User: What shape does this take?
Amino acid sequence: MSGVRVLVGTRKGAFVLTSDGKRERWDISGPHFAGWELYHLKGSPADPNRLYASQCSGWFGQMIQRSNDGGKTWEAVDNKFVYDGVPGTHQWYDGTAHPWEFKRVWHLEPSLTDPDTVYAGVEDAAMFRSSDGGKSWQELSGLRGHGSGAKWQPGAGGMCLHTILLDPSNPARIFIAISAAGAFRTDDAGQTWRPINRGLKSEYIPDPNAEVGHCVHRIAMHPSRPNVLFMQKHWDVMRSDDAGDSWREVSGNLPTDFGFPIDVHAHEPETIYVVPIKSDSEHYPPDGKLRVYRSRSGGNEWEALTKGLPQKDCYVNVLRDAMAVDSLDSCGVYFGTTGGQLYASADAGNNWTPIVRDLPAVLSVEVQTLK
Amino acid sequence: MIRVVLPQHLRTLARVDGEVKLEVQGAITQRSVLDALESSYPMLRGTIRDHVTQKRRAFVRFFACEEDLSHEPPDAPLPEPVATGEEPFLIVGAIAGG
Assistant: This one.
């Protein structure tokens, strides 16, 4: 029997939500790692019971946890993230040089084929890989060292590598994104990288069309069309049809094109979702109305999805890794808020229901479709 | 035996209740006690001291015998009552909200 498992990372622990294919009744377990920040949890596509979790704390630093039984039990694995060689400097907020310092893991991306291989996107921005189930980590230092690293700068949340997309048709190709450096691509499994930011325009940097320096918030891809990428930038929703070589804006009729998450329908590669946020200083929805916007045309034409979502006095945010989809016949869409609500739609966004309303602030949401 | 009291989150991480008791060879110092602690509980590596620099994390403090030893050199001898097991070595998460 099919079902779904939703992995929720929050400011004060992790929660695992499970349901059958109807997605009407939910079992909620947690908090796991109570009191710790769980930036991200994700399951292996090759073994759904293998989960990885990024657990961190301002006091005690970074931990990586691993589960082999779908989140029932966990074991701490290696937490040693050491940059290759002399790390050098990047730009600080005021433009001065600042040494690279490891702070935390923002995103864990398990390999599509091997449960023991997993990638980690970290702050200060770098990419690490483990090929032994998290027991040791090695930096893919060609990213940080490719030449523009000294020009990267932190966004307000830190200089984080937050998005890792693995190309299902080409194991050597990986896309990543960094706030605030931009998007990058490797075509040789992480040895060498190049920026892919042509077409992005950011008025908050000295050269709005610069090769790097763009605050990319999130990138999404449909696995059947890995050359088509959708991006929620600090401002602007963007689209690339050539694997990031060039981008064009598809914000269209959105009420605001600022936001954090972006995701793609599991069965309709041209159907995408964003959550418009009023502005970069007011991190809440416009007019106090929480609205997911859906485009069925790959951008430009957007419709507001409001049924079941609060349409007055709502001032929560939805963070970049806090939206996900399942791949059941009727695509489920899920997102979590900084107010602790976890909303789900079992009909591609037409109707929404909170699975749970009062979690700690939600940092990340991932969904596993269980066959 | 050296007695070590961990903060709650690290007790959970190390899966221990109450005090940790350690056999420490040679001089009893912050470094030798933390080396022994991390040897017995590898999951604590990096949570008290930085992996590379071995410096105490900013929000972690070391107390013993009603003294703050956080800024003592890591190779300075710990107080005699800690070395004899009469008093515990306290690893404390700084009170800093959150």
Chain B has one domain: 2-93. The domain at 2-93 of chain B is CATH 3.10.20.30 (Ubiquitin-like (UB roll)). The first strand of chain B starts at residue 2 and ends at 5.
